[in-house]
Amino acid sequence: MSGSTRSSEGLDPRRRKILFRAWHRGMREMDLIMGRFADAQIGALTEAELDEFERLIEVLDRDLLSWVTGEAEVPENYDSDVFRRLKAFHQHDKPIHV
């Protein structure tokens, strides 16, 4: 079970693949962060934003988690609009497993 609240029905193959990959990263915390963002945004992302989101999916879990939580500085080449939206989507005032 992925935890996804969004059906992939009606999505094109690329968006379906990205949605699946966002929920199946390896580290449960990153599944929740990336997957919830994808559930909410996958249908509205432009092709360029999908490219950027796919780049973020390729980042190691521990690195991406440290960027999202602010424990490490985001490398300039990943500090994109999509990353900032992902980070803003994740609320730090409550546990991510809620």
From TrEMBL:
Q: Does the keyword Transit peptide apply?
A: no
**What Gene3D superfamilies does the database record attribute to this sequence?**
Flavinator of succinate dehydrogenase
Which residue ranges does UniProt annotate as crossing the membrane? none
Q: Which UniProt keywords apply?
A: Chaperone
Xref: InterPro entries? SDH, SDH_sf
The superkingdom listed in its UniProt entry is Bacteria
Hey, which family's this protein in? Answer: Belongs to the SdhE FAD assembly factor family.
Q: Write down what this protein is called.
A: FAD assembly factor SdhE
